[in-house]
Design a protein that fits this description.
Elements: H1 2-17, H2 22-67, H3 69-72, H4 78-88, H5 95-99, E1 100-107, H6 110-113, E2 134-144, H7 151-154, E3 161-171
Antiparallel strand pairs: 1-2, 2-3
Pfam family, one: TadE
Protein name: TadE family protein
Transmembrane segments: 21-50
């Protein structure tokens, strides 16, 4: 019994002194947090990319409403405006229109626009407005968060996605044409 205990203690001491595989164990301990951090940085970069490009695309598409080009070309629907925004977001490909929601509302004065209804993609409305009207254009994309550890802190909905929004407000130029009746509340 004492001999087997001595042999067992000797094996344990030999195992404790062994350095074979130490690098693999150290790598395994460091690699997991490193790759999680790397994925979080990439995910955050993608969210900033989507946010920045959506802001730019909204501004550029709204410019055509502001100058009257959109109304002159027969653009009268949210689908037409979505096409203008998605033309600026070419890197998203065919998924752009499926993920994009737009809400464009026209007001007679700036004071009326100061308290717009809360943004809700389900309650979206579209009216490009007429000459001299104040317009509030809001767009959003539902972006899936891929990194599991970021999902609880970055997701804004229960399905693990984040609603990325862009907003621009402007006064239409005095282009030729009539002011249409308001269709939004």
């Amino acid at each position: 019994m004492a001999a087997s205990f001595t042999r067992l203690a000797a094996r344990i001491r030999r195992l404790a002194r062994a350095r074979d595989g130490a690098t693999a164990v150290e790598f395994a301990l460091i690699a997991t947090p490193f790759f999680l951090l790397l994925m979080a940085i990439l995910e955050l970069g993608l969210v900033f990319l989507v946010s920045t490009t959506l802001e730019h695309a909204t501004h550029e598409a709204s410019r055509q409403i502001r100058t009257g080009e959109f109304q002159e070309a027969g653009g009268v629907s949210a689908d037409d405006f979505e096409t203008l925004v998605c033309d600026q977001l070419t890197w998203m490909g065919d998924t752009c229109k499926a993920q994009l929601d737009v809400d464009v509302r026209a007001y007679a004065t700036l004071a009326q626009m100061l308290n717009p209804p809360p943004y809700d993609p389900e309650e979206a409305c579209f009216e490009a407005g007429g000459p001299g009207q104040v317009v509030l254009a809001r767009t959003s994309i539902k972006w899936k968060i891929f990194t599991p550890l970021l999902r609880p802190s970055m997701a804004t909905s229960g399905d693990g996605s984040r609603l990325i929004r862009a907003t621009t407000a402007f006064k239409n130029e005095p282009f030729p044409g009539d002011t249409p009746e308001s269709e939004c509340d």
